[in-house]
Amino acid sequence: MLRFLVRRALGAIVILVLISAVTYFLFFALPADPALLSCGKNCGPQEVALIHHNLGLDQPIPVQYWHYMVGLFVGRDMPIGHCDAPCFGFSFANQQPVWDIIKDRYPDTLTLAIMGAAIFLTIGVGLGLISAAKQGKLFDKIASGVSLTGQSVQIYFIGPLAIYVLADQLGWLDHGHDVDWAHNPVGSITGMLLPALVMSVIFWSNYSRQTRSLMVEQLSEEHVRTARAKGMSSRYVFFRYALRGAMGPIVTIFGIDLGSVFGGAIITETTFGLHGIGQLAVQAVLQTDLPLEMGVMLFGATAIVIFNVLIDASYAFIDPRVRLA
Amino acid sequence: MRKSHYAAMLAVGALSLSACSSGGGGGGAGGTADVAKPTVQQITLGTAADSQGPAPAVDGAKKGGTVNDLEQSDFNHLDPGQLYVSNQQAIAPLYSRTLTNYKVDPKSGKTTLVGDLATDTGEASADKKTWTYHLKDGLKYEDGSAITSQDIKYGIERLYADFETEGPIYVQTWLSGTDYRKAYQGPYSGKDLPDSVISTPDDKTIVFHFQAPHADTPYAMQMPNISPIPKAKDTKQKYDLHPVSTGPYKIETYNPGKSLVLARNTNWDPKTDPIRDAYPDKWNFEISIPDPGLTQRLMAESGQDKYSLTLSQSANPTQMATILGDPKYKSRTVNQYQPFVDVLSINTSRVKDARVRQAIEYAFPMKQIQQTLGGEAQGEIGTNLMSPTIGGYKSYDPFDKVTHPNGDPEKAKALLKEAGVSNLKLTLAFANNEKWQNFATTLKNGLAKAGIDLQLQALDLTSYYTLVGKVNNPYDLYRTGWGADWSNGSTVLPPTEDGRQVADGLPNYSHLNDSHVNSEIDRINAITDLKQQQAAWEQLSEYIVKNDVPSIPYFYDKFFQIYGDGLGGVTYNQNIGVINANTVYVK
Does the UniProt entry include the keyword Metal-binding (chain B) (predicted)? Predict the structure, then answer.
């Protein structure tokens, strides 16, 4: 197991290095000059050259990339001051350390991810299980219809609608706001409930359909029939045999989804005005803020890669047939 | 002046990608119902008496409460030396004072330029090259220490440092020339600016020695970077996070991109301040609030949003019809001119024949473009390179655009025939978002009536100004814009129309290089009477539009926004194009 994890971790590092290189070099393929965003009104060649120098953009791109990667591990001395490891540099837009910005934004993303995942996993898998148990009955048909609808709608559509109905008109839920666990723990939960509910819709719809389909397939497997033939109760067979068989693909999807939302839920955060990693990503792109783009990209990619490794490791526990050779 | 970066890019992607942007509005049907024509308050220079505090009271106003400000974009900077864009200028007076500033009468809206830290708007030598300012008594920083003339000199010296790249450069270039950073490297070099440039004979007097006459110095001294900085508290770039307050509020917390809280500065003395009423106890800024959600929150005004406003951003165009169509909103809207003018720049390096440029002007469909950009509430059909807010504004319309707002294709065709041009194909570059896609399509349809075939070239939003700002760009037409920094053409025509200022990134986007215009710019700059100078700029503007046609002005931007009913004293500063925070109170 340890060998497997070490091997996967090394592979993950290679992937992250490749992602960082692609992001870094692609940024310079854009014709946009980030110096213009840090430049005053009459932004002539002299001012642009000065800003390029301040931002380190006057060096060859491979040299810039090398300095960036070295800084991640040992820190860097930059014109604006020293940047401790892990040094993601300073934002082009506001000259703040990127790592500090990410740390500041992460509580929102983390809370949204955990609450959203809890909701979509519970509702999605729950609906799928009941639908599978009640195949062809009214509940199954309604659940399938609801899931299909949920999968078809978009957050940017249901988000404003939910705010208007549930927050503005009925006043049942909070509009959605940033978490502040230190000063307002209850408000942190209530403020994140509506965004988490809205975000979960597109996820649980998928889980519901997947779970139902996998369970129906499992219930028709020979080992399940054998178990039934041996006189085991339907409930026992349903959960002990069929569900366990269906768990593998569900966990795989869950791991990938969780990695994605841990890396920032761009549309949900933007819709609800949450200051998370997803919103930061949008800001970085729109401001052609390379250090921020790199920081957010590496952070999100790391979350996805870590969850992928964890999924692979979890197979051994879910399905004993899997051997980590 | 620029509008704020990020809001613009999120909303329309073109308000201020670079120095020139203006804009406002966005794609979609703008309402036209019941749009009152805003009044233009020509600014005047105040006297020493006008410069005395306290500020005129607002009827019915009371002290206390918290104002919530919803901002789509971050301020990015708080260091006064780095402030320039409109959302920065909107909040600057709350925590930072300058030598002069705008005093808005809360009853009439009349704006007067008065001494802020200074006792008046300045004493000039006969040649207008030397300007002397005296500081008022009782001026203090938030820590209670006295503000001195040396602090103002130090604040200006800082502007020469290599990291101060975003603020205005008027005073630095007037003092030390266009290559001012070579002349002096800033206070961190261990040297001071010599007394021959700025002298401080005593703690309360500061004397500026400019290289040339500058009649509009009083206006330049209200720019947000002409502010005192205490040398002992200067932390270079880190000063940006927590500048020392000289205004009625100090920075309680600032979380870049998320929030800013301003709390009372107890060392601010209202008796020294003719501008700021400072009624609320606190200002709470929520940053990075997406639109149209932001506008909808202001409309709904539920909970604390009853006490909310946004200082510098116009209402989302998708909400215009609702706001204009429902009388219940009328009492809590602001709709006034901004100093920004949108223009269609014509690349004169490629479209060389003035008759062809005139043909484009005649064919330009003003009315349709106005509708596309959000209707009358978001902007008025404009034919002058300078906004109606500019001192000495003169209305001219050499191509009859007001009387022919749908364009005059027949005249355009005749001009093209006269120029010997047939089957004219031109390339229009536009920032690729909904607003400018609609703009491009409307323009293409309009010019097609005159037989001009417009090839549309969509450009990445973030790259737009980099690409059209290149001198050898491959486009014939592109939309740009400009806003005056103060009420004088000196901040509009020299940067945008001087043929000696054609270089990558500079705002002469049309590459106009007319020797008459160049010499006129030099002549007018040297006029020492401000009113004469303003009139001369207007004449030159008309000459350029009529004879050179380097660009087609089409839209005087307007500010249109709604605010929570729990607020009063919401006045407007048309010189910056934002709500005047100084008079706002919580009901």
Answer: no
Domain boundary among A98, A130, A165: A98
Q: How many structural domains does chain A have? A: 2
Pairing of strands B477-483, B333-346: antiparallel
Of B1, B77, B460, the CB nearest to A32: B460
Per-residue pLDDT tens digits for B245-291? 999 999 999 988 889 999 999 999 999 999 999 999 999 999 988 88
Task: Quote the pTM value.
Answer: 0.86
Give yes or no for a contact between B256 and B74, defined as CB atoms under 8 angstroms apart: yes
Calpha distance A293→A290 (Å, rounded): 5
Question: Quick check: B286 and A273 CB within 8 A?
Answer: yes
Report the SS3 class of residue B140. Answer: strand
Contacts of A31 in chain B (CB under 8 A): 460, 463, 466-467
* Predicted ipTM beyond 0.90: no
Which backbone phi and psi does B264 adopt, to 5 degrees?
-60, 140
Selected residues 284-303 of chain A with any CB under 8 Å from a CB in chain B: 285-288
Cis omega (within 30 of 0) for bond into B292:
yes
CB B300 within 8 A of CB B321: no
Does A50 share its domain with A122? no
Q: What is the CATH number of domain B341-556?
A: 3.10.105.10
Q: Is the dihedral of CA B177, B182, B183, B184 positive or negative?
A: positive
From chain B residues 492-521, the ones with a CB under 8 A of any chain A CB are 495, 501, 503-507
Query: In the block, which residue shows the tokens 């054609």?
Result: B502
For an interface test with A, the pick among B162, B289, B301, B466 (most A C-beta atoms closer than 10 Å) comes out as B466
